[in-house]
């Protein structure tokens, strides 16, 4: 369907097996997998080092990339001040 794999894959459930499936679904050479779900069972990821060497990447995103220590108080203050959070 994607003719070689997806450019971007996202895993939002939090299962190690689906994280591996998302990674394996990414395109060789430049495919990127973003892990959003949290694996609660402590299961390891079994990824092929060869696939990484061929250009696939895997990264994580916690809280959508905000810095909790500095950004959450700022967002809370903006909410209290009735300022749009999108104007950060």
From TrEMBL:
GO terms for biological process, alphabetical: formaldehyde catabolic process
Keyword Repressor recorded: no
GO cellular component: cytosol
Any one GO molecular function term: S-(hydroxymethyl)glutathione dehydrogenase [NAD(P)+] activity
Subunit architecture: Homodimer.
Lineage, opening ranks: Eukaryota, Viridiplantae, Streptophyta, Embryophyta, Tracheophyta
Name of the molecule in the record: Alcohol dehydrogenase-like C-terminal domain-containing protein
Alcohol dehydrogenase-like C-terminal domain residues: 1-72
